[in-house]
């Protein structure tokens, strides 16, 4: 099978960039080492994700009530422009106790933005979200982050980002930035619902897809599983399969679920203790 040229260039780019970043893989607190630690996240991009979306505010409410039923706290990576259309839904997400992060302002991958455009995107997002929430986390659209992104994450006081990987490992990296001598936690995603879009007509197949992603998560690791609300409601089978998946997660005794920023706070404490010992 032919690999698109852009994908080849991306692999080469990340191979080079990863060698430039001052980073180290870190362990998690002892009390989490005997659990699978999962954050569920939602890329809330609405009609700004480049695909047709009939997503409504009532769909978001339906997700929130389902999560509330299980007591799951989650992370929502919101596109800034969504606030122009779904402001009340974003406010409702916050009211339900979930975390809001950034999915950029324009849903443009940082990899494709020049420095000026990326700077403007961060400014626009901060202006739009100011007074409603302060984002701590960042997830690049399509997983296409960039080296220049790290400066702006530090400048705007983000504490973590979430990236895609080409392997099945879930790990956490601590990145040290020269900007203000700051640090950034980097989480990995185990996958999302994209492969179900326009393909899945059976709720049990959708359930199997999500369980397969979950099974990538090892005990003593932290990882994320993402969905796009507009994909969830693009077919009844996908939404019904996701509901079955949340019920499945609620019955796992060795699983701990929380929003990504909660794991950051736990990791930050461990990192602080280690620094004091050095």
Compact description:
The chain is 40% helix and 19% strand.
The number of distinct structural domains comes to 1
Strand content: 15-25%
Q: Please provide the count of β strands.
A: 10
Order of helices and strands: HEEHEHEHEHEEEHEHHEH
What is the CATH architecture assignment? Answer: Alpha-Beta Barrel
Structural class: alpha/beta
Give the overall form: globular
pLDDT averaged residue by residue = 91
Task: Walk me through what this model shows.
Strands 1, 2, 3, 4, 5, 6, 7, 8, 9 and 10 form a ten-stranded mixed β-sheet that branches. The model is unreliable at 273-278 (pLDDT under 50). The protein has nine helices and ten strands. It is 40% helix and 19% strand. The protein has one domain (23-277): Alpha-Beta Barrel (TIM Barrel). Strand 3, helix 3 and strand 4 (99-102) form a beta-alpha-beta unit. It has 278 residues and is an alpha/beta fold.
Write the layout of secondary structure elements.
Blueprint: H1 5-20, E1 22-26, E2 36-44, H2 57-70, E3 75-78, H3 87-95, E4 99-102, H4 115-129, E5 137-139, H5 149-155, E6 160-163, E7 172-176, E8 183-191, H6 203-214, E9 222-227, H7 229-232, H8 236-250, E10 255-257, H9 260-277
Parallel strand pairs: 2-3, 2-9, 2-10, 3-4, 5-6, 6-8, 8-9
Antiparallel strand pairs: 1-7, 7-8
Question: Which features would summarize this protein structure in a list?
Answer:
alpha/beta; 278 residues; TIM Barrel; disordered C terminus; ten-stranded mixed β-sheet; 9 helices; globular
């Amino acid at each position: 099978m032919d690999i698109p040229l852009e994908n080849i260039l991306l692999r080469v780019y990340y191979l080079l960039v990863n060698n430039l970043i001052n980073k180290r893989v870190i362990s998690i607190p002892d009390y989490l080492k005997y659990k699978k630690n999962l954050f569920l996240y939602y890329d809330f991009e609405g009609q700004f994700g480049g695909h047709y979306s009939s997503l409504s505010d009532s769909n978001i409410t339906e997700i929130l009530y389902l999560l509330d039923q299980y007591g799951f706290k989650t992370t929502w990576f919101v596109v800034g422009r969504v606030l122009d259309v779904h402001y009340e839904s974003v406010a409702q997400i916050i009211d339900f106790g979930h975390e809001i992060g950034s999915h950029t302002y324009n849903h443009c991958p940082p990899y494709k933005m020049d420095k000026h455009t990326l700077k403007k995107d961060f400014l626009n997002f901060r202006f739009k979200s100011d007074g409603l929430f302060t984002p701590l986390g960042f997830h690049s659209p399509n997983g296409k982050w960039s080296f220049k992104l790290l400066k702006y994450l530090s400048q705007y006081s983000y504490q973590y980002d979430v990236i895609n990987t080409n392997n099945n490992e879930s790990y956490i990296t601590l990145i040290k930035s020269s900007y203000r001598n700051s640090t950034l936690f980097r989480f990995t995603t185990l996958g999302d619902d994209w492969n179900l879009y326009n393909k899945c007509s059976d709720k049990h197949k959708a359930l199997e897809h999500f369980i397969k992603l979950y099974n990538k998560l090892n005990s003593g690791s932290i990882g994320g599983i993402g969905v796009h609300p507009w994909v969830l409601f693009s077919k009844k089978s996908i939404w019904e399969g996701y509901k079955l998946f949340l019920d499945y997660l609620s019955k796992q005794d060795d699983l701990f679920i929380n929003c990504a920023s909660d794991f950051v706070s736990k990791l930050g404490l461990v990192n602080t203790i280690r620094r004091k010992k050095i």
